[in-house]
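Thread: quick sanity check before group meeting

JM: Hey all, I'm pulling together slides for Thursday and realized we never actually wrote out the predicted structure for the chain we discussed last week. Dropping the sequence here so it's in one place. If anyone has concerns about the input, flag it before I start.
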Amino acid sequence: MTTRRSISPCVGICELDEASGYCLGCARTGDEIAAWSQADEAKRQAVWAALPARFAALGVACRRLAWDVERIRRFAADGLGQGRRMAVLGIVGALGEFMPGPNAPIDVRLEGNVLSATTEEAALRLHLDDGTRALAFSDVDPADGEAPIALVVPRQRSALAAVSVLTALGLDREGITEDGRTGLLFDLGLGRQEARFLVRIADDRSREVMEAHLGAPLLEVLPKIGPMLVRTSPTRVIETPLGRVEIATPIPPPGGQSPNGPHTHLLPAYLASGRAMPAGMDIPKSYLPGAIFYPV
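JM (edit): ok, ran it. Output follows.
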């Protein structure tokens, strides 16, 4: 039997801190980095065990967890299926929150690299392969379930096309549920590689409203299509390099409250920050955010 070896702590930031001698990305010493490929499993485990204290000494918040892809899949599937975690996809100001509503059942399935989860009002699909990384932002043990965990992917292979204007994409052939694949997708044009915010239109009148403003940038078009979106509450589809979430709960009017359970946010004032991740949860530039799992 082949024993799976511990993964590398590397996060793509390879810069040694002069004072401590630790790498600012992974908190290993230069000697540990050089010897990693030849190190036996006992040595690798010892290095991993030393990293939390080193990160604390460096004052570095973001750290990679020693989770291989199988551990990441179990974490995501169990957290969603047991109602202990919600998954948030998107960027600051444009995101979707996936969780079951009050007393709503959730169906979670893991088939190969694909994790899917569905409720009556939302659906989630994530592609979790060997390129997926799990990052933490505090020294809280993730097993305690009290800290957010970000799943990220390498930037160089996973960036989305950055669409900057309202764009018609045709039928949603990637829809998670079969009935959703008959709707027409429109990209609202975030202009970001980290995420896309789409709406799936099912009726002719709403389609006509969207088509009347094709080619317009988000800040110009949102006041024109916003009343229709609030009135009809079409399915919102948020895509990241890790997958997509589809949410069909009602959109609250300005000043209203989001419903309990799955919902979306599209807030231009927060988009203006240009941030992909919430404050205090910055990730290395070598990665793109895929999903954040928060305890609930």
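AS: nice. Residues 41-58 form the longest helix (18 residues). The two ends are 39 Å apart (CA to CA).
JM: adding both to the slides.
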